[in-house]
Amino acid sequence: MKKIIAIAIVAIIAMTTLVSAKDMILDTKIHRIYEKQDKNGNPFKLLIIKEKRTLNGVAYEASTTLTSFQDTLDQIENLNAGDNLKAIVSSNQYNGRVTYTLIQIIE
């Protein structure tokens, strides 16, 4: 019985941490670009973008990240801070905040 309860608790915790991602088109301006390496030494870039949001009728601007991993780095190699970006991205939630992962640049 204790085993079943423990498994149920683990399953509930696992389900609450699952996040569904959705693809969308993002059209915004790049504010900063950071070049990083993951723990295995693989390069990736973090693009800091700002997007307009509304909460309870109040409009505001929020900064968030767009991550470009190894398979999409060549698509953004010529982009700089201040450039406009139109791309297909995967929208995710990380620690309750919206983040994006680059899928493909739209020319």
Walk me through this protein's architecture:
With 107 residues, the protein is an alpha+beta fold. It has one domain: OB fold (Dihydrolipoamide Acetyltransferase, E2P) (Beta Barrel). The chain contains two helices and five strands; from the N terminus they run αβββαββ. The chain has helices at 2-17, 73-76, and strands at 22-37, 43-55, 58-68, 84-94, 97-105. The chain has a five-stranded mixed barrel with strand order 1-2-3-5-4. Strand 4 and strand 5 form a beta hairpin. The radius of gyration is 18 Å and the shape is globular.
Features:
single chain; 5 strands; OB fold (Dihydrolipoamide Acetyltransferase, E2P); 56% strand; globular
How is this fold's topology laid out?
Elements: H1 2-17, E1 22-37, E2 43-55, E3 58-68, H2 73-76, E4 84-94, E5 97-105
Task: Provide a short characterization of the protein structure.
By secondary structure, the chain is of the alpha+beta class. Helix content is 19%, strand content 56%.
Round the mean pLDDT to the nearest integer and report it: 85
**CATH fold label:** OB fold (Dihydrolipoamide Acetyltransferase, E2P)
Q: In CATH terms, what is the architecture?
A: Beta Barrel
- Low-pLDDT segments: none
**How many independent structural domains?**
1
State the helical fraction: 10-25%
Count every helix, treating DSSP H or I runs of 4 or more residues as helices.
Answer: 2
Task: For the record, give the distance between the C-alpha atoms at the N and C termini, rounded to a whole number.
Answer: 58 Å
Q: What is the CATH superfamily classification?
A: Nucleic acid-binding proteins
SSE arrangement, N to C? HEEEHEE
Largest sheet: 5 strands, mixed, barrel
Please state the structural category: alpha+beta
Please report which band the strand proportion falls in: under 5%, 5-15%, 15-25%, 25-35%, 35-45% or over 45%.
Answer: over 45%
- The CATH class turns out to be Mainly Beta
- The order of strands across the largest sheet is 1-2-3-5-4
Total beta strands: 5
Anisotropy-based shape: globular
Radius of gyration: 18 Å
